Amino acid sequence: MYPFRQGSFAPKNCWYVVANRQDVGRELLGRTVVNTPLVIWRTQGGEAVVLDGRCPHRHFPLAKSQLEGDTVRCGYHGFVFDASGQCVEVPSQDHAPRACRVRRYPALEHGLWLWVWVGDEDKADPALLPPLSEIGLEGEGLTGTPLIRREAACRYQLLNDNLFDLSHLAFLHGSSIGTRENASTPEELVKRPGFVSSIRRIRDAPVPATMWQAMDGYDRIDRAMGMHSYLPGFHAGTTEIAIPASHPTRGGERLMWNRVYHCITPCTPRTTLYHFAVAVAPGVDTAALKVALDPVIDEDVFASEEIEKIIALYDGDPPPELMVKSDTNAVEGRRMIQAMMDAESQGG
């Protein structure tokens, strides 16, 4: 399916964010990842559990059922499953068939999030997770905070494409976090297996609308903005703002720095789960930051959902796109994700 080859949707042999760690507790959560229904909870001992969310009896969603101790009782006919996925009770008979079980998926709490692997279990390597030191959650003096969650009515790659090319900040977010320099400043690009990144070093540019209060009275700034994308769906953004280098006495003095995190999780071919978080310096008001950034995330979701509507007019097969220089990361990212899916289809 667009923008991939016919029959390609999303890779399964990879880690996806399914929830913020702080949201996993003693209530059942339901998620869908790459067409796989899941039920999630935390045991009485504190362990996060992710099971297949379909009761094998009559397909009832286990996430719509009841948590009893460390077991889940299906809300339809009362089958009970323990944390390993084994059925331990069938109320209508004396014993539970050993064959009655649901899969338990590999899951890890890493950084701010709970990650799940819905592909081949023997390939679930924790080393494939983004290193916390590399994404700024260790060693930089910043504190991470989950801020926003959205369920988007569009295919996940539209949100990935949005993050691969930050020139859109100049226009889609021109009234909040962007200026024209986000499009006109040349990019510095890096790629390696499973990873693409871009950074723009913007010099002596106007302060974006949402940043005035934090700029110590300066109306022009130097700004380095980048996005580091760990495929297929985790994007760690960086922002560092300084007094312009041309200033006679304070040139280059840092005014602000932070990290942002966009977790893009494919649910179904046309729905996506989107978690957004920040890592900020001590003293930053994250509640105020959420108020400022809520509309920005909504703009990204709006654009992606509107594109999804256009694609639907062509029965999912739109005309070829006109690519330009700023699409380099999108092209490379798409190629890498397609290669991941190709490897899975070939048993790799």
TrEMBL record:
Q: Name one Pfam family in it.
A: VanA_C
Tell me the ranges covered by the Rieske domain, including all copies: 15-116
- Supply the alphabetized keyword list: 2Fe-2S, Iron, Iron-sulfur, Metal-binding, Oxidoreductase
The UniProt entry, under Gene3D superfamilies, shows: Naphthalene 1,2-dioxygenase Alpha Subunit, Chain A, domain 1, Rieske [2Fe-2S] iron-sulphur domain
Q: What domain of life does the native source organism fall in?
A: Bacteria
Q: Which SUPFAM superfamilies match?
A: Bet v1-like (SSF55961), ISP domain (SSF50022)
Which terms in the Gene Ontology molecular function aspect does this entry carry? 2 iron, 2 sulfur cluster binding; metal ion binding; oxidoreductase activity
| InterPro entries on file | Cholesterol_7-desaturase (IPR050584), Rieske_2Fe-2S (IPR017941), Rieske_2Fe-2S_sf (IPR036922), VanA_C_cat (IPR044043)
PANTHER family recorded for this chain?
A: 3-KETOSTEROID-9-ALPHA-MONOOXYGENASE, OXYGENASE COMPONENT, IRON-SULFUR DOMAIN CONTAINING PROTEIN
What is the protein's given name? Rieske 2Fe-2S domain-containing protein
